[in-house]
């Protein structure tokens, strides 16, 4: 019963639309509607699938290159978010209970502002005449502006900034529930802090790692 309502919600708003789109991808246009891909005709059951769309997507090098590029950038973004987000989540989970809500609010604070405003803010920072280049030239670190906009660097930076909270929050939710007595037991058995972290903390937080990686990777690919 506990899973009944969430399951119905997922079926109604995620699974059903996905199945509709999947059906359309195998159908042929017939006026303003799509032909049926299965049914009964002349008393016999038929299945008629159209693969032309998928053949076109796999034959065009542009689409293949785009798919591979999307997967590459999504994987890089996910790895960076994990490398940055895990220490953040670990620090939050091991902080005093009195300040944990404030730390969670800080992580969620970017969601309180418009996504477009945040994008334009980064544009002002990364532009040729932006804040970073002006500071670098004022300090004598660079002689001329460095092109950062419309580069793989700016793309990954923007995605990491956007999706980092989606990595931190699942990890924090997992780490904060961890029984610290397991770490004490590992230390009593002679494990160093680093060994205890890799042999106890990381395996116990794998669910948070998987959840965070999926929440970051899937929208990045899209």
List the helices and strands and how they pair.
Layout: H1 4-25, E1 29-30, E2 33-34, E3 38-41, E4 44-47, H2 52-59, H3 61-94, H4 100-108, H5 115-126, H6 131-138, H7 152-175, H8 181-188, H9 193-204, H10 206-221
Antiparallel strand pairs: 1-2, 3-4
Helix pairs in contact: 3-7, 3-10, 7-10, 8-9
Question: In words, what does this structure look like?
Answer:
With 222 residues, this protein is mainly alpha-helical. It has two domains: 1-59, no CATH class; 61-221, MetI-like (MetI-like fold, Orthogonal Bundle). 69% of the residues lie in helices and 5% in strands. It has ten helices and four strands; from the N terminus they run αββββααααααααα. The chain has a two-stranded antiparallel sheet. It has a two-stranded antiparallel sheet with strand order 3-4. β1 (29-30) and β2 form a beta hairpin. α8 packs antiparallel against α9. The model has no long low-confidence stretch (mean pLDDT 86).
């Amino acid at each position: 019963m506990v899973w009944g309502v969430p399951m119905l919600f997922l079926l109604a708003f995620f699974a059903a639309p996905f199945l509709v789109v999947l059906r359309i991808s195998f159908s042929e246009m017939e006026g303003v509607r799509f032909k049926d891909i299965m049914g009964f005709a002349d008393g016999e059951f038929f299945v008629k699938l159209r693969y032309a769309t998928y053949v076109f997507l796999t034959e065009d090098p542009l689409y293949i290159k785009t798919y591979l590029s999307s997967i590459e950038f999504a994987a890089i973004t996910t790895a960076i978010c994990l490398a940055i987000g895990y220490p953040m989540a670990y620090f939050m989970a091991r902080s005093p209970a009195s300040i944990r809500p404030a730390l969670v609010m800080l992580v969620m604070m970017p969601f309180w502002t418009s996504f477009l405003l945040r994008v334009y803010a980064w544009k002002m920072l990364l532009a040729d005449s932006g804040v970073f280049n002006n500071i670098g030239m004022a300090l004598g670190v660079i002689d001329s502006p460095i092109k950062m906009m419309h580069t793989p660097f700016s793309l990954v930076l923007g995605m990491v900034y956007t999706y980092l909270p989606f990595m931190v929050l699942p990890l924090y939710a997992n780490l904060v529930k961890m029984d610290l007595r397991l770490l004490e037991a590992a230390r009593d058995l002679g494990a160093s802090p680093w060994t205890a972290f890799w042999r106890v903390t990381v395996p116990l937080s794998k669910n948070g790692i998987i959840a965070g990686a999926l929440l970051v990777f899937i929208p990045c690919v899209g």
